[in-house]
Amino acid sequence: MKPLFALAFSSVLVLQGCVFSPGQHLDPDQFKKGAETEDGTVRLMQITPEMLKGELPSDQGTSSKQELLGFKPEAYRIGANDLLYITVWDHPELTAPSGPQQQLDANGRLVRPDGTLFYPYIGNIDAAGKTIEQLRADIAKRLANYIDSPQVDVSLLRFGSQRIVLSGAFTTAGQVEVTTAPMTVVQAIGQAGVDTDTADLSGLMLKRDGREYLLNLDDMNRPDSWLHQVYLKDGDQLHLPYNDQKKIYVLGEVVNPQAMTFKATSLNLMDAIGTAGGIRQETADGEAVYVIRGAENIATEKATVFQLNAASPAAFALAKHFPLQPQDVVFVGPAGITRWNRFISQLLPSASVIGTGAAFNR
């Protein structure tokens, strides 16, 4: 029965070899600049010094920087729901009509929703849109008809007309009132606090007047950072996204395959492989290091597969300069002998069954 067993074993070997090729792999020879797969849905590219120069995005933030730095805060303008404290020196009946023993707010003057406030002798005053100095001069001028040389001072007890909204991965998200003291992006963030464990520091978004400006909070502590010069104004929205969707998947012949999140500007290919414990030297194909990058709309755009020939350690100099994007898949393919060994390990159970059957027939 031995010839019968040998024939059966060979048949199974051929049959299983035709059905599948164990282990995922691509042919590194396919990766030529501009090449595509047969169906035209995937673009194949080698990671080379020339590719890094031509493919990596350049700085597109120059115009945004100029626009944001071009805004300079003006003097605070009074608005609805602001509470004012108006002092007329030597006239306590006007300064504190409820009596000096009352709380300061009790003697405040609230700006109505229509932007006006009432003041004794002179009646309704249009306050909204005026600076503190303009309102002070207006009140003094109108009081001069009733008081000789009135000395008037105006201050704000409570701000309620202008605000900035902070949302996302802030420790205390919510509204921040705009005050007479100009506030920068950095000051607003410092006041709200950042949840550094869950925040995507590179994704800070400033929404202003219907436009969106992407800011990099990760750059804040760098010498050339300009965020501390960006002033906020009424209606601005700051959104700091969470990093739960900012994942890179490292699979294949690495020590610790995993999905890893990152919260800084970018994660380069070298960092990703290093975080996964490095390439398995005994099973990996050094030429088969791939980055699979999907398209936003697969129906109209091509996905891209980048290939790094890491057979030489010098290739990691390129990996260090290749930035990954969220949802990228880093795949390290198995060596040819590894695929063969796995094929044999999957084949042995079938061979064992055939051997048992042959022994039974004897």
TrEMBL record:
GO function term, MF aspect, one: porin activity
GO biological process: monoatomic ion transport
Tree of life domain: Bacteria
Subcellular localization: Cell outer membrane
Recorded GO CC terms: cell outer membrane; pore complex
Chain ranges of the Outer-membrane lipoprotein Wza C-terminal domain: 335-356
Domain called SLBB: residue spans: 162-239, 246-332
Major location (coarse): membrane
Entry annotated with the keyword Signal: yes
Polysaccharide export protein N-terminal domain sequence ranges: 73-156
Record keywords: Cell outer membrane, Ion transport, Lipoprotein, Membrane, Palmitate, Polysaccharide transport, Porin, Signal, Sugar transport, Transmembrane, Transmembrane beta strand, Transport
Membrane topology label: Multi-pass membrane protein
Annotated family: Belongs to the BexD/CtrA/VexA family.
Record PANTHER family: POLYSACCHARIDE EXPORT PROTEIN GFCE-RELATED
Name of protein: Capsular biosynthesis protein
